[in-house]
């Protein structure tokens, strides 16, 4: 942890100095027509107005409004997106009920380089405080990013590597905020500085800290018994990040690199480790006593290097060639009290190269496309007495291509991808044997868009996608103290296959716009972590507290389906007032369609798992941790003479009684199997530029959960021990130069 600890004072100096230009400033974005927003994750750099199928672009101003301590919570108000919410320190996006390795989180088209897919308590090493925009991709469009994006993509685009000259040679921004629910403070700054006609420097830094957060009641039954009311224990967090980048800009392209770091620590609500100690009493009798070792916390750091280059050929077959490369050294240590228990390390790199074709006339239309390759290598290890994943190495590569044909009012696209993944370990825990596995997957998609009339389009996507099991799903075998479970993988897991269909509709009629996405996914051999019904017993082959539930990765056919609706209406826009209404509704359902059995003679790992030679059957039914129906609606009132905007918003989340099955005979409420109640949050937002002569200063007020409603998240592993925060009043200030 030494590198980033030493860099921390330097990052705070950068904050005080104020550092990046954001091309999409708040007031400018509000006036930018939607068809000028370019979707950078689109292989052909399509504008948002031309995309019908499952894509959301979260602008800079929206990110500032919704900014939270994690990317999961920041994006959780977007259509079809919820959050794992493992407290304020670790919350990963969930898209249409899918999470983990099926959701790929990236920074500028390259991996986040963390271990967040291994468990819900691990943070995502991505900072969005000064992101230009975040793009959320759902459905068949994710094929470009590989098999690990089968459920969706979250792509964070920032300016760590400058791609253009700042206006007037220097652009900078400083922001600061204070939140009442956790006595939290955040301060950050960024700047782009023109060093010459060709060289541009970027620097940014961000620092946040928060205490335990408040709730309107007791967190759980244990808290009620102990009289701990009004806050969630061990939910404090702190983090510092910083980046420096340098680019050379030419007439036909650019090349640049950046170095960044993140460093911090956060507590895991509800995570406590109990350890048995032997004590000799009178007469030589030895008694065993359980002693609580202390709350679980995670201390993390990452150092990351990025290289980015792009060249425009303009004429000829290839219009643009792009090259991306990133590598990172990530580690975090899980503490029980003050004692370090387990060290997770992840050394990873990824390379991505793409070529974009010019448009050529073909028949009555035009044809274009893109093709590329990406290669990645990862060495991941959990070391320590309680490590539940052995050291493993993963190497993977993929090639992909997409072709588009546009004619009349139609757009037709076809895409395909081949991936190869290799997993190796020389220490399969408790077995004393090595393991090696290689799998090749193939995915393909077809889509069509028809423009019914100006501003109205309908589209359909069909795709067949394959995903090979991950090292966590194959090799897990041990006690995971952060989740208080025993997790068991299975080396016999097969590739899962998804057949998906999505129909989308978008229309804009004068001041009214409406969009809808309806989808259905049929999974063969869907992999999921499920309670087996077994509980850990003394004498099993690794140390763990007795009585913990045993979770196992299993496979069964499954189906997922749902929809997302969005609408907004500009009711008034004159010299004085602007009035806008908006609303969104999303529903996601997931269920296994066949029973599955874990254990028995078919599992080569039975001899060293807690289940021994037994077999446990999980019946078909609802999948755990799926979001319930959600509605969000609001009204924005802008008063132009005061350069101010007020937004009043209602956010309703329905009850979730479609939960995983609690194993028969179990007297313990196991995460993912307990229904959650509905809740309604009323939210208020105010932005104002109080000084006419200093219009670059913006002051903001955000009030969430105004009525202090008690709420639990159905998608959280900690739904029964860590409720969502209560009323939060946040004051913020932003200055641009």
Account of the protein in words:
The chain is mainly β and 737 residues long. 6% of the residues lie in helices and 56% in strands. It has six helices and 37 strands. It has a 22-stranded antiparallel beta barrel. Strands 1-6-7-4-5 form a five-stranded mixed β-sheet. A hairpin with a 2-residue loop joins strand 22 (433-453) and strand 23. It is globular, with a radius of gyration of 26 Å. The two termini are 34 Å apart.
Rg measurement, Å: 26 Å
Q: Total number of β-strand segments?
A: 37
**What are the segments in which pLDDT stays under 50 over at least 5 consecutive residues?**
1-35, 273-282, 600-613
- Continuous helix count: 6
The termini sit apart by: 34 Å
* Average pLDDT figure: 85
What fraction of the residues are assigned to beta strands by DSSP? over 45%
Q: Which structural class matches the secondary elements?
A: mainly beta
The major β-sheet equals: 22 strands, antiparallel, barrel
Fraction in helix: under 10%
Shape, please?
globular
What are the main properties of this structure?
5-stranded mixed beta sheet; 22-stranded antiparallel barrel; 737 residues; 6% helix; disordered N terminus; 37 strands; mainly beta
Task: Write a short abstract of this structure.
The protein has 737 residues and is mainly beta. The protein is 6% helix and 56% strand.
């Amino acid at each position: 942890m030494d590198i980033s600890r030493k860099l921390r004072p330097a990052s705070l100096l950068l904050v005080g100095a104020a550092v990046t230009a954001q091309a999409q400033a708040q007031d400018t974005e509000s006036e930018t027509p939607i068809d000028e927003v370019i979707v950078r994750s689109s292989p052909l750099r399509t504008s948002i107005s031309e995309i019908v199928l499952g894509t959301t672009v979260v602008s800079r101003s929206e990110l500032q409004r919704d900014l939270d301590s994690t990317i999961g919570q920041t994006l959780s108000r977007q259509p079809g997106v919820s959050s794992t919410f493992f407290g304020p320190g670790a919350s990963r996006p969930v898209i249409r009920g899918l999470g983990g390795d099926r959701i790929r989180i990236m920074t500028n088209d390259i991996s986040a380089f963390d271990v967040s897919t291994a468990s819900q308590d691990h943070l995502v090493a991505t900072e969005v405080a000064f992101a230009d925009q975040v793009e959320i991709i759902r459905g068949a469009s994710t094929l470009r990013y590989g098999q690990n994006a089968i459920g969706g993509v979250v792509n964070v685009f920032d300016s760590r590597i400058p791609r253009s000259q700042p206006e007037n040679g220097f652009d900078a921004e400083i922001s600061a905020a204070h939140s009442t629910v956790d006595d939290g403070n955040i301060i950050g700054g960024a700047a782009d500085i023109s060093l010459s006609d060709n060289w541009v420097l970027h620097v940014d830094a961000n620092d946040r800290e928060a205490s335990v957060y408040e709730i309107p009641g007791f967190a759980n039954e244990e808290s009620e018994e102990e009289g701990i009311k009004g806050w969630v224990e061990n939910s404090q967090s702190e983090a510092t990040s910083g980046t420096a980048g340098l680019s050379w800009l030419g007439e036909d392209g650019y090349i640049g690199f950046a170095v960044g770091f993140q460093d911090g620590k956060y507590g895991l609500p509800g995570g406590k480790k109990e350890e048995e100690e032997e004590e000799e009493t009178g007469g030589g009798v030895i008694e065993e006593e359980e002693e609580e070792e202390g709350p679980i916390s995670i201390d993390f750091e990452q150092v990351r290097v990025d290289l980015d280059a792009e060249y425009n050929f303009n004429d000829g077959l290839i219009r643009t060639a792009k090259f991306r490369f990133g590598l990172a050294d990530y580690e975090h240590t899980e503490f029980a009290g003050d004692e370090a228990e387990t060290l997770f390390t992840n050394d990873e790199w990824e390379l991505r190269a793409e070529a974009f074709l010019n448009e050529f006339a073909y028949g009555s239309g035009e044809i274009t496309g893109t093709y590329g390759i990406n290669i990645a290598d990862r060495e991941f290890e959990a070391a320590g007495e309680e490590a539940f994943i052995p050291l493993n190495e993963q190497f993977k590569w993929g090639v992909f291509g997409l072709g588009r044909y546009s004619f009349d009012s139609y757009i037709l696209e076809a895409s395909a991808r081949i991936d190869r993944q290799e997993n190796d370990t020389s220490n399969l825990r408790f077995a004393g044997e090595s393991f090696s596995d290689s799998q090749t997957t193939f995915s393909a998609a077809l889509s069509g868009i028809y423009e019914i009339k100006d501003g109205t389009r309908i589209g359909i996507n069909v795709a067949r996608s394959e995903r090979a099991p991950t090292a966590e799903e194959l090799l897990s075998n041990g006690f995971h103290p952060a989740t208080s479970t025993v997790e068991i993988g299975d080396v016999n897991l097969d590739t899962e296959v998804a057949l998906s269909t999505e129909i989308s509709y978008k229309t804009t009629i004068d001041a009214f716009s409406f969009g809808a996405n309806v989808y259905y996914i049929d999974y063969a051999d869907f992999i999921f972590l499920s309670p087996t019904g077994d509980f850990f017993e003394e004498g099993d082959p690794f140390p763990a507290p007795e009585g913990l539930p045993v979770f196992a990765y299993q496979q069964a056919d499954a189906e997922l389906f749902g929809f997302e609706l969005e609408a907004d209406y500009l009711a008034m826009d004159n010299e004085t007032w602007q009035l806008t209404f908006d609303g969104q509704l999303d529903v996601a359902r997931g269920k296994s369609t066949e029973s599955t059995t874990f254990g028995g003679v078919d599992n080569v790992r039975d001899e060293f798992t807690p289940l021994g030679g037994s077999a446990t059957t999980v019946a078909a039914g609802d999948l755990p941790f799926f979001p319930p129906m959600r509605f969000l609606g609001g009204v924005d009132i802008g008063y132009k003479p005061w350069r101010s905007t007020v937004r009043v918003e209602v956010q309703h989340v329905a009850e979730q009684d479609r939960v995983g099955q609690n194993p028969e005979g179990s007297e313990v409420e196991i995460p993912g199997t307990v229904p959650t109640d509905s809740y309604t949050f009323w939210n208020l937002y105010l932005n104002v530029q109080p000084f006419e002569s200093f219009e670059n200063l913006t002051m903001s007020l955000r009030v969430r959960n105004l009525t202090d409603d008690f709420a639990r998240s159905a998608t959280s592993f900690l739904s029964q021990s860590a409720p969502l925060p209560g009323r939060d009043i946040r004051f913020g200030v932003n200055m641009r130069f």
